[in-house]
Amino acid sequence: MAAAWWNLANYRKPAPPIRSTKKKLITRDDWEKRLNDVKIRKEDTDRLVMNFLVTEGYAEAAEKFKMESGTEPEIDLATIKDRMAVNKAVQSGNVEDAIEMVNDLNPEILDTNPQLFFHLQQQRLIELIRNGKVEEALEFAQEELAPMGEENQSFLEDLEKTVALLAFEDVSKCPAGALLDVSQRLKTASEVNAAILTSQNHEKDPKLPSLLKMLIWVQDQLDEKVYYPRITNLSTAALENPAV
Length: 244
What we know:
Layout: H1 2-9, E1 24-25, H2 28-37, H3 42-56, H4 59-69, H5 78-91, H6 95-105, H7 108-111, H8 114-130, H9 134-151, H10 153-163, H11 182-199, H12 207-223, E2 226-227, E3 230-231, E4 239-240
Parallel strand pairs: 1-2
Antiparallel strand pairs: 3-4
Helix pairs in contact: 3-4, 5-6, 5-11, 8-9, 8-10, 8-11, 9-10
Protein name: CTLH domain-containing protein
Organism: Solanum tuberosum
InterPro entries: CRA_dom, CTLH/CRA, CTLH_C, LisH, Ubq-SigPath_Reg
């Protein structure tokens, strides 16, 4: 019995088998052969380029690419200039003009998206505060934004943060001071841009950046298993020899 207890007390589970951690090496010639075996139609790459140009608002480039490649855009290219005009107005702080232009494009965009409309009105309030129009800002907040805040708690919280800017002579000391940064204009402009694209039955984000992110993710997964020629410079897509 004592011997059995001693054997049990000193029992050690057998160590798991040692697995080889050596990664496989794929040569440059073999890797390029594999890449060449993947057939991608030119029409697909052309549509990918057109999608990027349209979504990002490069109207002239999209028109030229259409002529050179014969690729038809998914939306009327004339609407790109209108969309970019809205974008420019928001980024310049001319939010009231931007709202009018959005309504000219499609009144349903703001009618069916109360959050977007609130954010545009909030941006108008921010611009009044930025320009030192205190009384006008308070009046605008009370008459236009307060009723919206009563209907939606999240709107009320954003309104309170914005109005808090008026309580600080030095807005850099205000917890909500970032609202006066250019990044806030860009955020609002991006939201409007996405809403216009959605109203035109177009993706709000270009496909190309998503594919590049997927490429980076796939390479990270491969790095754990094999040595292979990888792409480190996405702008040139040049293959680098595997670092063994």
